[in-house]
Amino acid sequence: MAKIVIGLSGGVDSAVAAYLLKKQGHEVIGIFMRNWDSVANNDTMGNKNINDFICPQEVDYNDAVEVAKIIGIPIHRVDFVEEYWKLVFEDFIDEYKKGRTPNPDILCNKYIKFDKLLNYSIDKLKVDFLATGHYAIVKEGTLYRGKDKDKDQSYFLSQLSNKQLSKVIFPLGEMKKVDVRKIALEAKLNVALKKDSTGICFIGERNFSEFLENYIPAMPGNIVDFDSGKIIGNHKGVMYYTIGQSKGLKLGGMPEKYFVVSKDIKNRLINVAPFSKERYLVSNRLIATNLNIISDKFSSSNITAKFRYRQDDSQVVVKVDRILNEVIVDYSDGQTAITPGQQIVFYSGDQCLGGAIINKIYYDNQELKIIF
């Protein structure tokens, strides 16, 4: 049996993961992370909970404490607010300032959960492994999709190293979400029917554009028809919109809906086109940087990729430049609204091979200037 720290978030997944580990006879220690301070971080606009008597984070902590009590394990609380700001949130804001669309969940996993928390658990609590409630599978230091394809979270773990993965346990990897709920009910866990958390990693649900205004001042500008160059609306700030977005443009009276084609940061312009011209968003090649490889199968020609979390895999051909730590990816089926700053994640069957950050996008060898 092993000595294991389980990250207790106050949700049902981590609670059941802890319950299963304890039932298996391991020495289990719960730990709750506090990574965000709304007051210290000026998180006011877009935060509907800012004046609540008890914030959602404290509700989650109290739920985690009750879970630990029911299961019969100790629980610790650790504070990584400063680390989260420096390692995750500063990059998040810098990317939005550049007009890109980052994924903070991936950085949070790489630098906070499976670095700061993992090291704290090993160094301070002298444990053998860190466990979490992620739906993914680890075998011999490599990563695989979780059995529940609708809940699989390997996409968000694709920047982890083999060393990190060798010290990680995912008790729910072979399970379906519906069965996790059943176990929680049978074990009479207080969070059995608790709604899953949504929103930004460790920050929660926010009115997103208002939330960004806390850190990136509004810079109003014009919305322009991509073909005619005619001004057809206005916006609060280029950085608040992403490629392919249609919601929130507020272009009333048009014969059809419009979407964002490109963004001009310098001139504060958002270029849009009607849905009938979705071809403007199609690409068939990209270059991605910060390549993280976690399997030697990456050299295989039979590789698929996800360009965003909730989509089916696409067959791709890759060319890796290990000196520049980047990868050229070709996809003959064509993809729409691929966005710089997002993560492309590679697979061979169910094995996750690694991931990289999308940087440039092309159609028939011509770069699409979607941000300029």
Helix segment tally: 7
For this structure, the quaternary state is single chain
Radius of gyration, in Å, reads 22 Å
The major β-sheet equals: 6 strands, antiparallel, barrel
Overall shape: globular
Beta fraction of the residues? 25-35%
Strand tally: 18
Strand order of the largest sheet: 12-15-14-13-16-17
How widely separated are the two ends?
A: 56 Å
**Overall pLDDT, averaged?**
94
How do the SSEs run, as a string of H and E?
A: EHEHEHHEEEHEHHEEEEEEEEEEE
Helix content percent band: 10-25%
Low-confidence stretches: none
SS-derived structural category? alpha+beta
Q: Top keywords for this entry?
A:
372 residues, alpha+beta, six-stranded antiparallel β-barrel, five-stranded parallel β-sheet, 18 strands, globular
